[in-house]
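Our consortium's second objective concerns turning raw sequence data into structural hypotheses that experimental partners can test. To show how far this objective has progressed, the report includes one record in full. It was chosen at random from the queue rather than selected for favorable results. The single chain below, 587 residues long, was entered without modification.
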Amino acid sequence: MQFTAISERFVPRIATSGLIGKHALPRHIWFDVLAFSIVISFLVFISWGMTEMTAPIGKLEQSPISLDTANLPAYAMRTTLRMLIAVVASLVFTLIYATLAAKSRKAGQILIPILDILQSVPVLGYISFTVTGFIALFPGSMMGVECAAIFAIFTAQAWNMTFSLYQSLLTIPNDMNEVAFVFKLSGWQKFWKMELPYAMPGLIWNTMMSMSGGWFFVVASEAITVGNQHITLPGIGSYISLAIEQKDMAAIGWAILTMTIVILLYDQFLFRPLVAWSDKFRYELTASQDAPHSWVLSLFRKSRIVRKLFKPIRWLSHIILRIRLFKTKAVPRHFTLSEVKLFDYLWYALLALAGLIAFRHIAVFLMTSVEWSDTVHVAFLATMTMLRVIVLIIIASLIWVPLGIYIGLRPRLAELIQPLAQFLAAFPANLLFPVAVVVISRYSLNPNIWLSPLMILGTQWYILFNVIAGASAFPNDLREVARNFRVKGWLWWRKVIMPGIFPYFLTGAITASGGAWNASIVSEVVSWGDQSYEAVGLGAYIAKETAAGDFAHIVLGVGMMSLMVVLFNKYFWRPLYKVAARKLRFD
């Protein structure tokens, strides 16, 4: 295997400079030293971060947030640790939730609408109802506030990953199911040996997007304001919040530079190795001639000490994969048509009963806590926000679908674009608030129109990342067939590539629309110092009620947003999902 920047250039330079002479240690020792240093550095980082997170809560008052640039490295590490913990929790949630939803039709009828609701609830909505509980769970410790911030970041990451795995499990090729049947794999073995590897390329790209998407809401998660309670955690998000409040452009510039360095680091040490590793799970009959690569992955593969360190994990994984959980019966019981209908009727009756109970509680809430005029007004605001979301998703799709296909079909180009796309996806909309305020004020523009692009700024990348993932996973043998038959132009787009990436595009569009609803909370109300502009919409309504601590109206706003997202997903996106699962699969 070819070794890149570090292995082919760095080590030979050491040798030619005299540090490695005739009697020096073998070259693999240097691989071991580098790999072991990376592992130890990561463990030290985790240990330091956990120590800081469990400190007494009084430390927040003793060390308030400062715009001194010397604090930025520590702030960056604290933010990165929160995001890493959140993305691990998101991965665990994804493996459980998406698998249940895809494997069980009845479970999916409940879990997917719930996922639509969870996706539509804004980050501020979660913070409003969880921060007090987390603080009470860890009295006197900073861990309570840290858990609230991590949970808020989790809500910005998990839904995209879950939709990705769910989509992949629905579009598993039939010949893979036949192979699992022939080899008599249990449900447990089939998932880990076939289904999850098939979903791995798309899941990794969506994990990358979720990691970057967490940056978009990092200001709201680290600088928490609910009613009269204001809590600020050390991190880049709180640093940006203070810089915006004090109108310090230099501090914002330093924050952007720090974000760029952090994104480049975890791109090189985390996501690029994962993308290169996942390439072996491509579903195709012929190997790709231009596979992605990573110097970190190559370094770890050449390091003997790393192989020894991870040997127990590899041994344990082999044992786990041999477990025959959820074993299918050789002769499954066949239910009669009347029995199937009876089960369905009972199931739907249970769902209807749960719906009636929920409707009763909603009706009681509307009659006792808010006025009907408030409900009508919030419905109007939700309609305005929905129109913005629809228009922005259409525009983003027209731009990023062709570009995503072009990038995804070229692994070398994808490697170059990957860190740039992560940076753009991670770029918080808050940093463009000064530009938006100045431009709107100088040219007397309509905030209802010109604040809208801020909604799609962070969520459009869901479409790009998913399309890149779909194009990267597109079987190379199908590309060769199309090339041999000289399928070109519009016919190639319509008959070859668009059907191939359509399930991935759906996942990106669904999560982008849900993210746009979320982003409306921070994008429909912008401020720079004491100057602010507001667009008419549901996001501005929820942001104002959250700042005021009016929980009844927060519930009304969040509930209306969830209702709009669920209805739109059910009657538009879900039918398209069924088409993709039934017709657009590699069989």
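The partners drew two points from this record. The longest strand covers residues 223-226. The CA atoms of residues 68 and 119 lie 36 Å apart. Both points have been shared with the crystallography group to help prioritize constructs.
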